[in-house]
Amino acid sequence: MAKHAPALATGVLAEDRIAVATQWQLMWWRFRKHKLAVGGTVVLVAFYLVALFADFFAYADPQESEAQRSLMAPQRIHWFDDGSFRPYVYALTGTRDPVTFKRVYVPDTSRKIPITFFGRGEPYDLLGFIPTDRHLIAAEGAKAGESLFLLGTDMQGRDLWSRLMYATRTSMTIGLVSVALSLVLGVVLGGISGYFGGLMDTAIQRIIEILRSIPTIPLWMGLAAALPADWSVVQVYFAITIIISLIGWTELARVVRGRFISLKEEDFVMAAELLGCSKARIIFRHMVPSFISHIIAATTLAIPAIIISETSLSFLGLGLRPPAISWGVLLQDAQNIQALVISPWLLYPAVAVIVAVLAFNFMGDGIRDAADPYL
Amino acid sequence: MVAYVIRRLLLAVLTVWAISVLSFMIIHLPPGDYVTSYIASMSASGSAVSEGEAMALREQLGLDKPITVQYAKWMGLMLRGNFGMAMEWGRPVADVIGDRLTLTMVISVAAIIFTWALALPIGIYSAVYPYSVLDYVFTFVGFIGLAIPGFLLALVVMYVGFAYFGANVGGLFSPDFVEAPWSMAKMWDLVKHLPIPAVVLGVAGTAQLIRIMRSNLLDELRKPYVMTARARGLSEYRVIMKYPVRVALNPFVSTIGYLLPYVVSGSIIVSLVLSLPTVGPLLLKALIAQDMFLAGTIVLLLGVMTVIGTFISDLLLMWVDPRIRLGRQ
Description:
The complex is a heterodimer. By secondary structure, chain A is of the alpha+beta class. Chain A is about 60% helix and about 15% strand. In chain A, helix 6 runs parallel beside helix 9 and helix 9 crosses helix 11. Chain B is mainly α. Chain B contains 16 helices and two strands. In chain B, strands 1-2 form a two-stranded antiparallel ribbon. In chain B, strand 1 and strand 2 form a beta hairpin. Chain B starts with a helix and ends with a helix. Classes of the chains: A alpha+beta, B mainly alpha. Chains A and B meet through helix 7, helix 8, helix 11, helix 13 and helix 14 of A and helix 1, helix 6, helix 7, helix 13 and helix 14 of B.
């Protein structure tokens, strides 16, 4: 008997813990058990760190083109020098093949360029206001932009690694901005639809059905192509987010409406009504907190679709346009299949797209499962 | 039942109207009007348009009238099958689009058939044997399928075809048949080329449908009537296929409503990568050349065809689901 006592005690303790835990604590505990979701979250945190500190992770100017360095293959890093950990790369010399006229790059094994971490490179403003010149990766005794090519270079000789870092910033934030816009539209319209019902509900539901039965990409293409060609990068960026969220809100509105309708019948809402609470108080104090977790889940699951939309549009040349850098803009270089066969590393940005989308899906699934214990 | 059909029909008409307004917006958004861009493109190709001609054209299209009148006029032309001229091609829009629109639909339908043919058995298997090795494999592949945008998959397929097999896997016809008139041989050639675009387009939808089918059927299999059927000694095949699968099929069928717009949408961009002769490449070209009449018409026609497809799927749903057929009580 005595042997079982401690186990029993912890069991009771655990039950106590659950009894007094807040809704968010319970959700967090359930979320933690979902290993894929936790993994996805870690990946996303990493992505957003890159987005936030893109200029720190990049080591070269993403816009600096140099015909002498066009279409270099990703460089091999030698991690050990004489048995000790001292990463270096060989300097590359480019020549033109006299037969094919293709540029070929040969490593010059007599010149080692040591790689340092947190070393000095191009000066920039961290977060936009802290002047510094530290980068994650830097070349010692040489300019990083002229000697490091971790992921190779594109047609214009721009360093793909650095461009990928800046592209991550654009593509990951466009997802957030668009989803925020969709969220506002979705919550307001879905809320009206679900809470008030009646004619408004019918009208909004029909609008949603109509929007969902239109093939989106042709429509987006048309709207995006109509953007004036002389707009600045920032204007195009916001125009594209608006165009994408025009359709994106429908799914969120559906979730919100469904929740409102099911909650309206709950006893606690009626109790609040009988106590004479105002409509606003019932909605924001009593109803919204009980379904906010579902909204978060639906929002998370909406972001990957937005990222794919932006990538597709930019890939077609109708979304963000150079000099803006996004995953879609980078993938435009991979459009030509002959070029892709010669330089397959142009397809690397695709890996970033797929990993980000997967991570969002995993995290969203985890949040949804954690938010709804009955599923 | 009649009420259901009428409601769906009304919604379809309303959708077509909404699409027409959006298409009209696309035509009108860029600065200038059709005539100024027409003049620009004509003078670029060396032939001048006189002031009188321009005026006549404006009058014919009613560009000097308020926007609502213009819309009504444009719709009138559309309804009479007069889609205007494709500037870049110097031919009527209807001529330029014709075959391509049909092929777009052929590819989309092929993709949906592929989606169904694969998602149904896999979904049933995953639900009957949940948490088995194959179930995990399908779930994993499904997740990857969902995460890869169609055009990236198309790029990878093209790359693999080129780099490892030295073959161009794009296109819908062999070189001999591209310009040939329609014949049985050409049809057969088309059928042979269909699988790759159909698979590329269908993968994401398949992954989604497998998940829907699996969770529907799992819910259904837990219900007591399944146990009753089993207790009464029905064969396992009948226990699963006769009732639970039929019930689980309903939400599955209703997804076709949004599967079609999704697939048509995807076909536009996948066609560009795989160089398929659909309206996709045409639309992109038209948009880049600011040939808004052609572009607007393509968007409109694509939308209308999608609505018709969705309406047909609604009728299909009615046929499968007795609750709709007999009216919800």
